[in-house]
Specification:
The structure is a homodimer. By secondary structure, chain A is mostly helical. The first copy, chain A, is 73% helix and 0% strand. Chain A contains ten helices and no strands. Chains A and B meet through helix 9 and helix 10 of A and helix 9 and helix 10 of B. Chains A, B: It comes from Rhizocola hellebori.
């Protein structure tokens, strides 16, 4: 129990320090100092800073894998897209700080780019969203939605907007852009 | 004439090297080597790497200032938004490589953040686009469109799409998202 919670505290502190000082600007010593432990205590859990980063991003990646699997299990293109979109918005809002460093810190981007499974995973949402319309228009729409969601959720200009409001409007805007019907605008009776 | 073209060649080479090696990873010596000139020739034009970066971004910033001024001179909210949106899409497509480094290189972001006039300028498009709907929904829509346009135009996944196709679809998608009528979908007669 105490081992688990030390590891969790370490990952929380690492994400906060990466956000403040960038991945390249955060040393294992800084993480140890922030937690009030020795560097040896850090090494008990992780051998390198890259291992810490991989552990920091793991919960978000696991949620993304699950959303992709759920989306791909849907039979209709519409359900596939809507499942992916809803899950993608949920994940980005739940992990605003993490998405922020993944999108803007080249040290993070470089470290993650050395993991082929992660690179492959990051390309899947664009493939799924643009699959029903394999044209430049479909790809541009899909990219606009996905990168817009990620950048908006992590924007320093929008930190005053709470998670639930952000989630709701990101989803309805994205649905509108992709031509999907919003659930709170029911279809007229008879259709 | 030769002075002007040396300066232009220098800025083009600098942008290419910044894109490849990041701003922090590009030295004045690398720029000189790339151009086949001496470091002294670089110093004839610029004293620091920060001065080179400021000169590299200047044409795009000047175009953005002009678009903002044109938008703000419009009387109706609709014309203001459409002028801003059209100009913003034009600029991001024309400067795909530059937008790429501005959005993803923290060295660039940090260097530009020391110029208050540039920081103020970057906040204006979001203010203009969200001004007609001063609510979380309006801000989220505006951010989704602006960051989506910037990320999509500079996305390494979409380099196979030519500028004109990109421009056309970014504009029609953004207009749809903001509830603006697209020019190539004329309103029914009588409306």
């Amino acid at each position: 129990m105490s081992e688990v919670s030390t590891r969790d505290r370490l990952l929380t502190a690492a994400l906060r320090l990466f956000s403040m000082h960038s991945f390249a600007g955060t040393s294992l010593q800084m993480i140890a100092d922030n937690l009030g432990v020795t560097k040896a205590a850090i090494y008990h859990h992780f051998r390198t800073r890259d291992e810490i980063l991989t552990a920091v991003v793991q919960p978000g990646l696991q949620e993304l894998r699950e959303v992709i699997a759920r989306a791909e299990a849907q039979r209709s293109p519409h359900a596939r897209i809507d499942t992916l979109l809803t899950g993608f918005v949920d994940i980005t809002v739940r992990h605003r700080a993490l998405i922020g460093i993944m999108g803007t810190d080249p040290g993070v981007a470089h470290a993650l780019s050395t993991h082929p499974d992660i690179v492959e995973l990051f390309g899947r949402p664009l493939e799924i969203l643009s699959s029903h319309e394999p044209s430049p228009a479909g790809e541009i729409n899909a990219s606009l939605v996905l990168s817009g969601i990620a950048c908006t959720a992590s924007s320093p200009l929008l930190t005053h907007i709470d998670d639930e409001t952000l989630r709701e409007h990101l989803l309805s805007s994205s649905r509108r852009l992709l031509g999907l019907r919003n659930r709170h605008h029911p279809a007229p009776a008879g259709r």
